[in-house]
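Data card: per-record layout.
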Amino acid sequence: MRPTSLSVVLPVYRQADHIEEIVAAFDRGLRSLPVETEFVLVVNGPDDGSRAAARRAADTIGGHVLESERGWGRAVLHGLAHAGGDLLCFTNSARTHPSDLVSIVQTDLERPDHVVKADRRVRDNWRRRAGSALFNLECRLLFGIPVQDVNGTPKVFPRTFDALLRLERADDLIDAEFNVVCHRRRYPVIEVPVTMTRRHAGKSTTGYRSAVGMYHGAFDLWRTMRRRGATTFPMSLAG
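The structure for this 239-residue chain is written out next.
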């Protein structure tokens, strides 16, 4: 059955200077698609004006504003729990170009029995490229997942893939958990290449310390899933 409604979850962290503009651009782009869209903005950072800006953006398009404690995964989980669409989407609004969001949602409307996600082909600089390549390689080796870009957003999926509504990671590892669940449940995944790399504004929260934390976090996720007997990758360490 073709989906008729879409929920777009947008975590908002220190984005007071551009969140209104980007939400309006997302809304304009998605209006070209044959689907009713709701926006769920989840403010999960210090009060730098982002709350007020998010409320103004939501009032303009008829969206919703929620608040959560700090954390990418925590904001995604909170937003998905309050989303009502047949199709569900979450994305890093600071790094998502409206045309990429529209393209990925349109692909999932055409293939509603799939997960559709972004595959970012370019990064800001060589450090980000190297760090991303290392993390993606680690995830492929640990979990056997075939995706090229674990953290790439937007991610869009049908509500019927209900295991994706029971994710647990409240941190940056939620994207790795998302892909592992897709792999385990055999949810088919389509990756759409995108070239958007620069933030619309503001400063990235990903630095050396957070990157190292993600490398350790991926291994911790692997150990947790192994203890639960949930691993499906073809490695001798699986026992």
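Known properties of this structure: The helical segments are 19-30, 50-61, 72-81, 98-110, 126-143, 174-185, 208-227. Residues 5-229 form a domain with the Spore Coat Polysaccharide Biosynthesis Protein SpsA; Chain A fold (CATH 3.90.550.10).

See the next section for split statistics.
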